[in-house]
Amino acid sequence: MELKLPPISLGTAFFKELDYSLFISHALEAGYTHLDLASRYLNEKRIGQALKDNNVDRNSIIVTEKIWPCDYKEKRFFKVYDEMLERVGTSYFDIVLLHKPVKDYLETYQRLISLREKGLVKYIGVSNFNKKQIEKIHQKYHEYPLINQTETNLYYYDLETIEYCKEKGIIVEGYSPI
Known about the structure:
single chain
């Protein structure tokens, strides 16, 4: 299954106090079809309500969600995932990423694979991972993450990781591009 991401996504970090219904309405009018969420942003419920208020067909948009490192432990992971689905008001996410590499990311990646196998997410990936960390995932699971979301702008970028990802067929999704 091939993923086609639009060239620009709507990041939702740093927008805590906002009329989310209007925000989503304008974004959809402007042509945004990919929303980037994370529980760490503390706005999932308001974005979910805004999608409902705007009668957004869930199949017409791509929703990315990220899992924060404190939720990587098995006891929390699946509970937190269910809570994220509930807050956003959806039965699945298109893309789920590990928000950043910490000590137990390899075990947590297996939980992402499990979500994908259960049909609770279509695509899995990582965020803020470098070449060595991605290679460890490949060595353990014999697959590469589909996406590596990483800071990519004129002032900061990890060219070695970007080139590695392109070589391995991993989509490089830049955040904070401006």
